[in-house]
Amino acid sequence: MSGPSAAEIVRGVLAGETRAVARAISLVEDGAPAAREIVGAVHRKAGRAWIIGVTGPPGAGKSTLVDALGAAFRMQGRRVGIVAVDPTSAFSGGAVLGDRIRMQRHNVDPGVYIRSMATRGHFGGLSRATADAADILDAAGYEVILLETVGVGQDEVEVVRAADCVMVVLVPGLGDDIQAIKAGLLEVADVYVLNKADRDGIEKLETEIANMLALGEETGRPRPRIVRTVAFLGKGLDDLLRAAIDHRTVAEATGAADARRRERSRWRLLDLVRERVLVWASERTEGGGGLEAAVARLCRREIDPYEAADSILGAFASQAGGRPL
Amino acid sequence: MSGPSAAEIVRGVLAGETRAVARAISLVEDGAPAAREIVGAVHRKAGRAWIIGVTGPPGAGKSTLVDALGAAFRMQGRRVGIVAVDPTSAFSGGAVLGDRIRMQRHNVDPGVYIRSMATRGHFGGLSRATADAADILDAAGYEVILLETVGVGQDEVEVVRAADCVMVVLVPGLGDDIQAIKAGLLEVADVYVLNKADRDGIEKLETEIANMLALGEETGRPRPRIVRTVAFLGKGLDDLLRAAIDHRTVAEATGAADARRRERSRWRLLDLVRERVLVWASERTEGGGGLEAAVARLCRREIDPYEAADSILGAFASQAGGRPL
Residues spanned by CATH 3.40.50.300 within chain B? Predict the structure, then answer.
């Protein structure tokens, strides 16, 4: 079964066709060979969208919040792309966030595109695929792109690095883990969204975040805002939109937005380098510098992990001609 | 200020000296040059410890559970090492889990070693450091090593890959995010610990997990157990210990334990390869194949990310002589 060529998909994406966008995102999600040509072409046309990352621990109500935000941007007449990133579904072979259920809420509106993404690869690649998907939506004319991810770890931090503005969603009742969450997100949050603000503990949570921000080092970025919401009831959405727009205005005026874009390019590049070296190493399984041979010696404790890595990297560095992987 | 040499630290670790263990773990945590010599030496002496990974979403009560498990193993007369891995604290420059508070509970007992770990690096390295720390504790004679990590993402999955047995701690009330959590942890869990089992929703949670396991594919591993606990009250601890011991017995008898150790070596090696290539790329900032030059062109959209990665990898592959990085 042959589908459209990469060039045809690129033309469709640039014309804003939903089917072409969907196909292009599937290809980057799968790490397909055509992804390279597609991203190479659309990357040059991208750069206009406003990308907002939304992250936070499980149960914080991110999906509801993202849907409400998307609706609010639609009311302003902007085209909205939503990418629900699901790092945890790498093993299940598919996103589990219920695309279809969410689509039903928006599917009469061609101005909204919603998509869940996982990754099929064993070497991460999710932040690479997310950044590629944002380029595709951007080139297709979506003016606001919402990247939603579940969690508080390094994965999520890397995914939301693709954003111009990062919203961290927290809720009362996280217990001691709030300490770890705060530390992990300190460097990426532009807006703290205190959701489910009708619950007990909201005052304590806000005080904790405010104290953390007061104690924080000068980052050179605009100081993060704190906004309370009850996304399920639509409460606080206006405040949240205003905080996002304020952040954008200040970030563009101070040069923080440019610095962020540069940092984003750096991470994206390193992420791609990482992924490709790992794919190379895992495919070169036999012979000197072969992965399986090194693993077997490592299991027998004949070599240590650092020696094993040397043998892989030596083989990589000495391969003929420095040709691209 | 010069401390002991790597060789002296190795001797201390092999003699089971707590100060040498602490110093060795700090060196691997910092990615210090001496770490390589230390891990190279202790790796050959390790391989006897029983490593149990404990993960789960924020608020699941993992720390309390790990402390209770540690105490239970001590009652059996085993030496216990606890490593609380904190991927989210990479940005804060230190672990935030409150070492000292936890230490107070055990600090009269020389048979327990407790340590929080973060990582100072910008390229992950936490799963590498965790595996190195496990080798150090193993070589120092700790018979049970508990690796505790907060979260449900790829980071945590990679950290607990260092374990012989993985316990996933869940609690009632995770809402829809339970779907993503279940999918992410499906492939790594050996024991599901349903903690805070005195709460509403415990029946529903257990049914969900049981249904998921019934639907799951054959993995070639022993089928995961489900155990209810109220760790705070010490309830269910005996059942949990029994489940862990059963898992070990079956895994050793069926060859699953060997397969796991082999898989662990593979991941550990790839993780190290990844980290070292990224460190190399980030240090080579200028000139052809230099990181900053590529980032600048990428920002201007003169090249796309894949072309930029080619330039970095080409420079890497063509560097003289294939010498180790």
Answer: 45-256
Task: Please check whether residue A269 is in contact with residue B312, taking contact to mean a CB–CB distance below 8 angstroms.
Answer: yes
Q: Rounded distance, CA B110 to CA B112, Å?
A: 5
Which residues of B, range 156-215, sit inside 8 Å of A by Cβ?
156, 173-181, 183-187
The structure's pTM equals 0.68
Task: Name every chain B residue with its beta carbon within 8 A of the beta carbon of A63.
Answer: 176
Q: What is the pLDDT of residues B274-297, one digit of tens each?
A: 777 777 777 766 555 578 888 888
Flag the least confident range among A119-128, A295-304, B35-44: A119-128
- CB A152, CB B152: distance < 8 Å: no
DSSP string, B208-261: HHHHHHHHSPP-SSPPPEEEE-BGGGTBTHHHHHHHHHHHHHHHHHHTHHHHHH
Confidence at residue B274, expressed as pLDDT on a 0 to 100 scale: 77
**Where does residue A300 rank: exposed (0-12), middle (13-18), buried (19+ CB within 10 A)?**
exposed
What residues pair up with B115 in beta bridges, in sequence order?
A: B83
CATH fit for domain A46-253, picks 3.40.50.300, 3.40.980.10, 3.30.420.40, 3.40.640.10: 3.40.50.300
How do residues A265-280 score in pLDDT, each as one tens digit? 888 888 888 777 777 7
List CB contacts (< 8 A) between B39 and chain A: 304-306
Judging contacts by C-beta atoms under 8 Å, the chain B residues touching residue A296 are 262
Residues of chain A with CATH 3.40.50.300: 46-253
CATH 3.40.50.1970 fits B45-256, yes or no: no
Taking an 8 Å cut-off on Cβ atoms, the answer to whether A317 and B322 are in contact is: yes
Residues 116-135 of B with CB under 8 A from A: 123-124, 126, 128, 131-132
State which residue of chain A sits closest to B156, comparing Cα positions: A153
Q: Using one digit for the tens of pLDDT, what is the confidence trace for A310-321?
A: 877 777 666 634
Is residue B112's pLDDT more than 60? yes
Per-residue pLDDT band for A91 (boundaries 50, 70, 90) equals very low
For chain B positions 270-299, those within 8 Å of chain A (CB to CB) are 270, 272-274, 276-278, 281-282, 291, 294-296, 298-299
- CA nearest to A157 within chain B: B88
Specify whether the CB–CB gap between A251 and A164 falls below 8 A. Answer: yes
Contact A94, A100 (CB under 8 A): no
pLDDT of residue B117: 82
Give the span between the Cα atoms of A189 and A185, in whole angstroms: 6
pLDDT of B147 reads 92
Q: Token digits for B77?
A: 């007369």
What's the average model confidence in pLDDT over B93-110? 51
User: How is residue A58 written in tokens?
Assistant: 């499980």
Residue A140 DSSP SS3:
coil
pLDDT at A99 exceeding the cut of 50: no
